[in-house]
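User: Can you predict the 3D structure for this chain?
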Amino acid sequence: MFAIAATLAAAPLIIGLYAYVGYPLILWIIASIRPRRSSARATAPWPSVTITLPVYNALSSITATLESLLALDYPRDRLQILVISDASTDGTDDAVRKFAGRGVELLRLPERRGKTTAENAALAASRGEILVNVDSTILVPTESLKKLVRVFDDPTIGVASGRDVSVGAADNQGTLAESGYVGYEMWVRDLETRVGSIVGASGCFYGSRRYVHGRALPPGLSWDFAAALVARKQGYRSVSVPAAVCMVPRSAQIRTELRRKVRTMARGLSTLFYHRALMNPVRYGGFALMLISHKLLRWLPYLLAPFAYAALCILAVENVSARVVLGTLSAGLLAGIVGIQYRSSTPTRPLALAGFVVAVFSAGFLAWWEALKQTQMATWDPTPRPGVQT
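Assistant: Here is the predicted structure, written as structure tokens:
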């Protein structure tokens, strides 16, 4: 019983250490000995591009986002900007229509069906060879679109993901840890690109070849994750493009991020289960191992964490060291709960870090619960974010 409890208590830590430390280290070693691929030809003709912008009740952010897209440095006769409204009710559609004279197109869906359904519907209304999906709450610097699209000169590439840059008030300790995590994730994707292929794109700003979206995705899944998986099945690789920056404002409070993470991870798990065949290393080789390491093994500790805590409680009955670990962990858990409930946007740094960790683990476990129940988390509400200037 003691051995079983000890194994269960240690499992999340061991798996997490491999997923967050061991896996990137392996990537770094492989990338260090593998020659870099040649860059795309700067003189190649620019392909036609459709920017798809799925929105629901995004009145507070849509104007600034569209202004940033209209300011992009890209041949205007090769660019289509298409907003897909998921039956918005707050005046978003009227705000978009004001841009009609500047070439922005609006596709309004008759009923609210969710982001993925909106992205599926975009294919029939789009004209571009490359589809670029943009979130309604972010801003794209003028040069980023060309940086993203240029990589498609390489015929082996099916999906290109931009680089998220988390921005916000410097004194907002509540979600500052989120910024550090985003930077870490971008670094790992850069390593995966050098090794071969990323296993998921950034939902805020990514592009793909038109035929990657040739088959509609079930509404409970995520296209930003699935695009790289579908591309791999079609024989393409997916890459991260460090120069293709997009500005992503941090949420004002940890509680807001918790709700978003539950939905994002639950949809990610459902997408992984749907494309589970890609985790077969016999058929998909290194890509399968990368998918398991980057996604499944990152998410598994969230499922195991409550059971590990219970196992630690059992060990603490007879073991002094286990009691010390349990006491420390319980204190951190309590601090995290206080950090999440903190009404101000600026809790102290220790509370902010503890709150972020507890929020992530709570969201992860709830996401597993929703995914295992096969809950269809199709619809979404926009995450409240402060404005940002490019």
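Strands lie at 49-55, 79-85, 104-108, 130-134, 157-167, 205-209, 237-249. The chain has eleven helices and seven strands.
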